[in-house]
Amino acid sequence: MVAAKTVELTYKKLGGSWPWQVSIQSLGSHFCGGSLINNNWILSAAHCFQSTPAGLSVFLGKQSLQTSELNSLTITVAQIINHPSYVSSTHDNDIALLQLSSSVTFSDYIQPVCLAAAGSTLGSGTLVWVTGWGDISSDGKCFATSVELPIVSNTACTSAYGSGSITSNMMCAGLSQGGKDSCQGDSGGPLVIKQSTGWTQAGIVSFGYGCALPKIPGVYARVSEYQNWINSRIGMK
C-alpha cells in the first residue's frame, strides 16, 4: 500500500470487510487491483491495460496472494474495455472495465460495491479508505492492506502536481504529512467511503509522485464522472 518505514498500516481481512476488492493477475502474478461492481464486471484503471496482458485472470475473495483460500475464486477475463478518451500522458479518463468469462456467485467473501452517483462529490477532509495489495515495504509482503485518508481538494492537489494536471475527472486523497498512501500494485483498486446505505466507490487508484510523500496526495479517477459510460458498457439502464 505504501513504501516507507514510518508508514502506518491497517490490516483487514477482505472476506466480509472489502469483499469487492480483486487482484488482477497476469500468468499468476499480481499487477493491478480492481473492484467487483456486479456479477459479471470488474472496474479498474486503463493504464493497467495499455497492452493486453498474457494469461489474464481475476482473483476474488482473497486475503493473501501467497496461499490458497477456500472462499476465493479465480475467473478469466473475456474482454477489456478502456475508456475511449483515456490519455496515457496526462492520466485523464484512467478507467477500464473487465468482463468476466463467467458470472460470479456472491458470498460473504465476494460482494459487489456500489458506485458513486453521477455528479456527486466529496468535500475536502472527508475520510475515505483505499485497499489493495500494492507495495508496503521492501520485504515483499503479499497481504491485502487498507489505509484511511482524507480527501484533498483539486485546487490543493493542483498545487502539488502543477497547473492543468488535475482535471475534473480526477480526485485526490492523502495526508499533508505523508506516511499513508496507495502505491505500486494498488493501481486500479477502489477508493471507498462508508455512507448510510453502505460502502460506495468514489475513486480508482490512478497515479502519484512516489508513495506517501508529504504534501503529495495520490490521484484517483473520479467514478461519479463515468456513470453513463459504465452503464452503457455493461448494459445497465
TrEMBL record:
<dbReference type="GO" id="GO:0004252">
    <property type="term" value="F:serine-type endopeptidase activity"/>
</dbReference>
<protein>
    <recommendedName>
        <fullName>Peptidase S1 domain-containing protein</fullName>
    </recommendedName>
</protein>
<dbReference type="InterPro" id="IPR033116">
    <property type="entry name" value="TRYPSIN_SER"/>
</dbReference>
<keyword id="KW-0645">Protease</keyword>
<dbReference type="InterPro" id="IPR009003">
    <property type="entry name" value="Peptidase_S1_PA"/>
</dbReference>
<dbReference type="GO" id="GO:0006508">
    <property type="term" value="P:proteolysis"/>
</dbReference>
<keyword id="KW-0378">Hydrolase</keyword>
<feature type="domain" description="Peptidase S1">
    <location>
        <begin position="1"/>
        <end position="235"/>
    </location>
</feature>
<dbReference type="InterPro" id="IPR043504">
    <property type="entry name" value="Peptidase_S1_PA_chymotrypsin"/>
</dbReference>
<keyword id="KW-0720">Serine protease</keyword>
<dbReference type="InterPro" id="IPR001254">
    <property type="entry name" value="Trypsin_dom"/>
</dbReference>
<keyword id="KW-1015">Disulfide bond</keyword>
<dbReference type="InterPro" id="IPR018114">
    <property type="entry name" value="TRYPSIN_HIS"/>
</dbReference>
<keyword id="KW-0732">Signal</keyword>
<dbReference type="Pfam" id="PF00089">
    <property type="entry name" value="Trypsin"/>
</dbReference>
<dbReference type="InterPro" id="IPR001314">
    <property type="entry name" value="Peptidase_S1A"/>
</dbReference>
